[in-house]
Amino acid sequence: MKKHRTATTRAGKAARALLATLTALALLAAGLVGLVLWQHSYDLREEAVTIRHGGRTLEGVLALPPNGRGPHPLVVFVHGDGPVDATHDTFYRPIWESLARAGYASLSWNKPGVGGAPGDWLAQSMDDRAAEAADAIAWARGRPDVDGDRIGLWGASQAGWVLPKIAARDTGIRFAIAVSPAIDWHRQGRYNLLAELRRDGASDTETAAALRRRDTVRELLDRSAPYDAYVRAVGRSHAMTAARWRFVSRNHNADATPALPALRGTPVLLVLAGRDLNVDTAETEAVYRRLLPGPGLRVAHYPGAAHSLVAYDVENSPLRLTLTALFAPRALFAEGFLADQRDFLAGLDTGAAAR
Question: Whole-angstrom Cα distance, residue 291 to residue 282?
Answer without folding.
Answer: 14
